[in-house]
Amino acid sequence: MVPSWTDFAGRVAVVTGGGSGIGLELIRLLLEAGARVATLDVDPTGAPPGAFTQSVDISDPAAVAAAFTAVHDDLGKVDTLFANAGIGSTADVLACTPEEWDRVFAVNARGVFLSIKAVLPGMLERGSGVIVNTASVAGMIGLRDRAAYCASKGAVIALTRQVAVQYAGQGIRCSCICPGTVDSPWVGRLMDEAPDPAKRREELIARQPVGRLGTPLEVAQAALYLASDAGAFITGSGLVIDGGITAA
């Protein structure tokens, strides 16, 4: 359920990676809050009815530019961007190939950069706009077997701060969310691929001091707050939603 302080009526919002997990919950919340919503996803078939969908590789500059043009033509200029699309990687430095490193950065970091680049001109023209990027606690602390993932999410946090400082005086806010371990389809696949899925799930749960995984809805609600008028004094911040991982 959308919090009572949230009102996106008349606003155009884009959610990248909206076909599942956090992005899917964001779309549901935004539609309920009255926004016109588009999602850019390599497979947007999971997006709920009412969202304008574009199938796109978020790391491809030409494809991203074309997709945002289609959004502008159909819905209008973007008021709020949730740069949420991302992929995982489960390798340390020695196991990670250059190809895997480049692919993770192409989606997780370049995809955010390209999405911001696509919406900024319209936001600057109107003198207002909000960008919320999906980073991770992996960009703040070291996690085992996550070399490319940690590095790419650290890049998202750094880019968030730079954009916030660069455009704060022109009506643009840019922040990011830093989730911990969320019970999402991607984490589900990680557990299914483990030799002992039940044991792996217990290990992931154990690293949260609160004793459970987060939910996509909990993270989506936090992102919605950052983008809402209630978060009007917030920019350049990384909102941690991690069940206490970074505090332990």
Summed up:
With 248 residues, the chain is of the alpha/beta class. The protein has helices spanning 21-32, 61-75, 98-126, 147-167, 185-193, 197-206, 216-227; strands at 12-16, 36-41, 52-55, 80-83, 129-134, 172-179, 238-241. The two termini are 31 Å apart.
Task: Supply the CATH class of the largest domain.
Answer: Alpha Beta
Q: What is the second-level CATH architecture of the largest domain?
A: 3-Layer(aba) Sandwich
Give the radius of gyration. Answer: 17 Å
Tally of separate helices: 7
Strand content: 5-15%
Specify the structural class.
alpha/beta
- How many discrete domains? 2
Q: Sum up the overall morphology in one term.
A: globular
Q: State the assembly state of the protein chains.
A: single chain
CATH superfamily of the largest domain: NAD(P)-binding Rossmann-like Domain
User: How many strands, what sense, and barrel or not for the largest sheet?
Assistant: 7 strands, parallel
